[in-house]
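JOB MANIFEST
job_type = single_chain_structure
chain_count = 1
residues = 244
[input]
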Amino acid sequence: MTRLPRTQARHWLGAALAAVTLATTAPAQSSAPDPRPTVAVLYFTNSALVRHDEYEPLTKGISEMLITELAANPAIRVIERDQIEHLLKEQNLGASDRVDKETAVKLGKVLGVHHMLMGGFVIDPRETMRIDLRSVNVETSQVEHVESVTGKAEEVLKLIADLGAKTNKGLKLPAMPTRATRPATGQASWRAAQLFSRALMERDRGNVDGAIALYKASLEAEPKFERARVLLAALEKQPSGTQQ
């Protein structure tokens, strides 16, 4: 993908921020603004020590799964991943690009959020996974909270659930509701998470048929993977070969 020079990227962000300013100074609309704290989750950086390319889809997968965990809290508003993907494409940033704090703040202002979450993951040869996260306060531009979870890679769904709960508490957001069920663990759920992440990659490339096949494979590996079921149902409503 052709990258925009840093100066052009900044010009783009400046234009986007100007548009936001105009929107906020426009006459008040009939609907009141959503007063809930707003959170956005950027893609995670892949620092796997083995099979780096194999784990690359998790950059989006972990983000999507964390968004799902946080969105279970009705007292906060979480930006959908599709909006993040669209914004990053406009800026010529991909899943593998490291986003610094300054850029995260500017993106956060464009999205109109309070907290920008960003981070990375490491997987070692023994398939131990560590996921690190930091939250940047868009208003103050400061790193307001840092969180980390570690465990076997096959516990990835549980690790992300724990990360979501810890982050929600660390940011002093309204309490999350109690989970009805525990996240699945084991090799089947780990495989399901990997297939799910690959499905997101294919979806973003416009390969709807490929994404559908991968979502189905993910559900075959872990039938209780509800987010895969929701995204599969949404894609199956689209004409073949098209993208939302």
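[summary]
Residues 18-30 have pLDDT under 50 and may be disordered.
Residues 184-238 form one domain.
exit_status = 0
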